[in-house]
Amino acid sequence: MTVLAQQCSVSGRMPTLFWNHGGGPMPLLGDRSQASLTAYLKGVAARLPQPKAIVAVSAHWEAEKVMVSTCPAPAMLFDYYGFPPESYEFKYPAPGDPQLAQRVLGLLGAAGIPAGADATRGFDHGTFVPLMLAYPEAKVPVVQMSVLRSMDPAAHLAIGAALAPLRDEGVLIVGSGMAFHNMGVLMGGMRGGGGGGRYKPSEAFDSWLTAACTKAVGAERSELLSGWAKAPGGRESHPREEHLIPLMVAAGAAGEEPGRVDYSDWLMGTKVSGFVFGG
C-alpha cells in the first residue's frame, strides 16, 4: 500500500525530499512493477509548495568532488541500456539555472566543501525520469548535482546542511535514488514478473530507515544515518550505497526539522520508502 504524507504547509520554506526514481525508464513505460511508484511521482507536485527551482542530487552522477551542472539547457543523458527504442527518445526540456548553480557552488565553498562546475552535463535518468512524472510541464529550472565517489554519509549530510539556505529561496532540494538497490535481488523480481515473493532484508532495512528519518532530527538523525551499514538488512539492501547517499543530502538540509514518510510500498519484491523533510 502506498503511504503519502499530508500536503506540506506553505511556510515560506521549502521542504526537502528523497524520492525513489525506479528502475531505469520503467516508470515512464507503464511497467506494472512500477505502477504505485509512477502514481506517487505523478502526485508529488500537488502535495508540495511550488518551487522556483529544483536542485536534484542524482545517484547516477559520481565525482571526486561535488559537481554542479551550470548548463543553461541540459541535454538528455540516456544512461541505461536494453530498453525499448522509445526509451531513448524522451525529452525533458526544463531549463538549467546557471545563476542558481553558482549560488550552490558559493554555499559549498563557504562551508569548505570542494566543488566544481560542469557546463555540459545533461539530465541523467535519476533526474529526468521522476521529473517527467512529477513536473511534466518542464517549466521549473533544474540544477543537477553529483554525489561524492567516496560515498561518505557524513560528508553528504554536511553538503545538505550547506545547501539549507536555498530552502528559504524557494528551491526544492531533491535526493534522487532508491531506498533499496541490490541489483541481483531486483533482477530476480523482474524475472518473476514483478516479484511474488518478498525480500525480508529489505523490509528490515526499510523499517530501520523509516525510524531513522521520522523519529530523530538534527545530530541524532545524522548519527543514525551515518551508521546505516550496520542497520538490519543494510548491506543486503545496498551492496554499494550510491542510491542511498542522495538521502543524506536531503536529510542534512532538513537540520532540526522532522521527516515524514511520503511513499512506501513493495517494488519488485522489495520494500522501499521515500521521505519529505520539513516544509
UniProtKB/TrEMBL annotation:
Pfam families the UniProt entry points to: LigB
Domain Extradiol ring-cleavage dioxygenase class III enzyme subunit B stretches: 46-259
UniProt similarity note: Belongs to the DODA-type extradiol aromatic ring-opening dioxygenase family.
Protein name: Extradiol ring-cleavage dioxygenase class III enzyme subunit B domain-containing protein
Required co-factors: Zn(2+)
Chain ranges passing through the membrane: none
GO molecular function: ferrous iron binding; oxidoreductase activity, acting on single donors with incorporation of molecular oxygen, incorporation of two atoms of oxygen; zinc ion binding
PANTHER family in the record: 4,5-DOPA DIOXYGENASE EXTRADIOL-LIKE PROTEIN
